[in-house]
Each structure stands twice: as structure tokens, then as C-alpha cells.
Amino acid sequence: MKTAVLVFPGSNCDHDAYHALKHGIGVDADFVWHKRSSLDGFDAVVIPGGFTYGDYLRSGAMAKLSPVMGAVRRFAEGGGPVIGICNGFQILLEAGLLPGAMLVNDSLRFVCDFVHLRAGTDRTPFTRGIPEGTILKIPVAHYQGNYYADERTLSSLEERGQVVFRYCDPEGNVTRESNPNGSARNIAGICSEGGNVLGMMPHPERCTEEVLGSADGRRMFDAMVAWLGERPA
Amino acid sequence: MKAKIYVTLKRGVLDPQGKAIYASLSHLGIKGVEDVRVGKFMEITLKEIGVEEARRRLDEACRRLLANTVIEEYRIEIGG
What we know:
The structure holds two protein chains of two kinds.
Chain A: E1 2-7, H1 14-25, E2 28-33, E3 44-47, H2 67-77, E4 82-85, H3 87-94, E5 101-103, E6 111-119, E7 135-142, E8 146-148, H4 151-159, E9 163-168, E10 187-191, E11 197-200, H5 216-230
Parallel strand pairs in A: 1-2, 1-3, 3-4, 4-11
Antiparallel strand pairs in A: 5-8, 6-7, 6-9, 9-10, 10-11
Chain B: E1 2-9, H1 16-28, E2 39-45, H2 51-66, E3 72-78
Antiparallel strand pairs in B: 1-2, 1-3
């Protein structure tokens, strides 16, 4: 089992993701430079957070054109698990692998804090065994995490079970006060129709050990390992 | 030849920066301002390819990179 951690100019959570996978979970992980155009031999792909290309033009707008993104598209079409975290989520949106776009936070402030998430579906490789309604404590750190999509897209995401996480309070209530950035319908993470591509603003790779304030992120990578273990070769 | 491209958030998409600037203008005592929308302005220098061809290529550039049409709209001005 081998996981790819993509590295773009300006990625800065790549080492966190590598550490979480390799030392937290104990799966094989390799950095993959964005100029590479193949992901052959990898079983899962992590697009980490950061400020690729300095967030020039829009977050993720340049990174979507990197050669490796063609490989990510083919990997995703083949059903391979892909998780985009923070800037990785923004890249997936810009690349059109997930619907919607990011606006700046409605507070106009960079938000860096632990938040609570309410799980919405266990059908993704990263939430397998995490039933709907489960509350996870995972940190966010972003300026542009205000998820936007038109009403029709939002309703379609809900109907098709593509809303994977919503911001909630510690008891699991999805409230205005628990929304750190103004995201439409408190959306913190969504998946593709097939469920194998997940984008989320919070950082599970930053909380895989209790010493970091929460180990809830570990559950998502454990889920990925279990999912891959059961996947027919 | 030169082209100017204006990218702005679509009407109906919340513009927190525009709102903050609007509030600041009020604090400054500048009266009569009804709304502020913040956008991007790009000046592009092109080879002499003709206005029609320039428009076609810039339209593609806007759709594929310069604007995100989920949240933004764009306007192209050619000439000068």
C-alpha cells in the first residue's frame, strides 16, 4: 500500500501529511513533485495544504494546470481515493474535480482554530466506518474557506449524499455560530458523485496523535487503509 | 495591441472585501456611496492578431484561467 503526497511550489502541509501517513498510520508514503505526469504504483493521493503559487490569481488556480493534475484526474476516474486538504480542496475545486468555489472568509480574517465537524456520509474511502452524525474535532487554518456553490448545486450535493462534513458545535448541532468562515450550509467537506474524491478545509493530517490536541484525523486515514485493504485488486 | 480584463464577483455572490471597504468609506465620512464591489484588473499586451481573434483567445483565457465562472464574471476591452 503506497500513498502519494503531492508537492507544488508553495505547498506547506506536505511534510505534515507525510508524517501522519508514514509515522502516524504506518503506511508507505512518497512525495510526488507536481511536474510528474504519472501516479502509477500509488494506491491513494493526498493533495496537501499550503499556498501553491502564492495563491496568485485565486487559490489553486495555477496548481490546477500542473502536469500531475492530469494524472490525478485519471486516478480519480479509475476510482482511486483522492483527498484534498485546505489548499488541496481549493485545487480540486479549481480543477473541476469537485463542484463549487471558495470565497474569502466572511469575517475577512484568517481563521486558525480547532473546529467540530459533523460527518454526513460513510461512503468515502476516508470516512468508511465513521457513521453519519459522528462528531470529529479537527483544526482549520485558512483565509479562503468560505464554500460557495449556487443553490441548485448545493441541493444536488445534499440529495446525492456528497456533503461529507459540516461545521457544528461540540454537541453536533449545525449552527451559524459554529461556522468559522461563512460556508454555504456550513459545508466543510464534499465528495465526488462516486465518493472517492474528497475535499475538505479542516486538516486531519494535523491531528493524528493526542499530543496534538486531537487524534480524530487518524480515524480518516485508518478508514482509508481499511478501505484499500478491502478493495478488490 | 493592449487588452484590459476586468474580473468581478457575480451579482449575488457575497463580497466581504467590498463590504469592509464600504464601511470604511462611511467611517471616513465620504457620503453618497451605495455599494462597493472589489475585483481584479489585468492589462494584457498582445501581438497584432486582429481584434476578433484577440477577443476569441482572451475569452478562452478568461474561461479557463483568468476568471472562475462559478463565482466571477469578466469583461474584455480591446484597443489602445
